[in-house]
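Entry:
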Amino acid sequence: MNATPLLLIPLLLASGLQARTWTSADGKTLQAGFVSATATEVTLKRDRDGREFTLALTKLSEDDRAFVAETLAEMADNPPAPAIEGEYAGLVTGDWELAEHGKLPYAFYGGASLDGSRKYPLVVSLHGKSDNNENGKQIGQARSFAKPGNYKERPCLILAPLCYQPHGGTGGGWDDDPGEETLDLVKDLVKKLPLVDPARVYVVGYSMGGFGTWHFLKEEPRLFAAGVPIAGGASGVGSLRSMPIWSFHGAKDQVVTPASARAAAEELKRSKVFKYTEFPDAGHGIVGQVMGDPLVHEWLFAQKRG
């Protein structure tokens, strides 16, 4: 037997239930919002002064008693999602949050409606070469994962670290300290944020971030389930034959010529989980084309580390 109606179940007005007119058994009316109820009582918040008070259901009209019963039944069928726990839970707000991990600045996104009892993919997004040193400006391509339509289909957690200076402009990029600190942060998130599915951690990067994607996959093949390097290449990738990778490049790229991407594709040509797409008429700026393609997102989120 379902005993839920016998419990006191709170329902905040912010949940969408607006104030309504309540009628007592003797015909008096009251404009108030529903707060909570039990099988015998209801707590209301009066519109006029915000005062909360509790009434016996027997003092209300038949319609009001029916409304309370329906509300309790609906709440029993749709219980609130468990709270999000862990050291990084405060970053899951439904907005981009800015923080630091040691010296590494980063932006983080997690939808406000994520269920604390579930696990979600973690997408690591690596930006290209830039003199920017302001946390938040590096989000760029990562926004494609947070777009409402896409996020509804593929809810996830998104990490966009900043390759701070001088590493991001004239230094070693993601092969240097910011890369090591990002990998350390990813491991920390997997360990301390229960929402993260350790079997679905992905890395995506453009230009310098494309090289960084290859670097991350080679450095930590057991940490990542898949990668999407865009306009970036690598050598010595034969060890990644079992890693799902979809590499993209523009044939007319004059900033990062496709030679290294082609070389990586040649090394992995016998892999059954590697894909290489080269756009014949495209130059370096292909990140929007790639990240705007739903098929790329579908492919990425289908990958899972065994």
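The CA atoms of residues 204 and 228 lie 5 Å apart.
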